[in-house]
Amino acid sequence: MNQFNKTDLVKGDITLIYADAIVNAANSSLLGGGGVDGAIHRAGGPAILEACKKIVAAQGNCKTGNAVITTAGNLPAKFIIHTVGPVWNDGLHDEATRLANCYKNSMQLAINNQCKSIAFPNISTGIYRFPKKLAAQIAVQVVHAVLAQTKDLDKVIFVCFDEENYNYIREQLLLYI
Ligand code: ADP
What we know:
binds adenosine-5'-diphosphate; Leucine Aminopeptidase, subunit E, domain 1; alpha/beta; 18% strand; 40% helix
């Protein structure tokens, strides 16, 4: 299998995805929030928040672009990878690099934990206001770059909650077919 047939696109709710790891667009406190973060904690149950609190107690808040891993609680996934996306400001504050780091670091953490499949939401494109088209370009480019360098991941699933993100990711994925 080559890197080009290792990506999937799904429209819907990431909490329902069967993947070894699903990624949460968390905030640096890891204490839960709105959007996909709220949905994951609600559906996964309290074990996820407990695990997040332990991580923060041990190593402090999670920095933008970094990722940490916890149980997935009651979700069908094995793990949740919590990554902190950048808040969009004006594009001159390293937003693109930081968003790229979210995807890279999440994939690396998945690999380090023997995951074969990972599902991503559209990190930073909600409350953090990252422009959706640019976010889609970065997400697909980075995912393909990482896939080109590893044999350890079989599948990366882009899970888009809204039509606009779905169309932008689709447009970008088509460039790799
Ligand atoms: P951020 O703070 O990183 O912007 P948000 O959760 O506000 O995080 O939004 C990130 C993306 O997650 C948005 O595109 C939003 O539509 C999407 N989203 C919200 N709920 C879900 C869900 N249950 N499954 C997948 N994606 C979701």
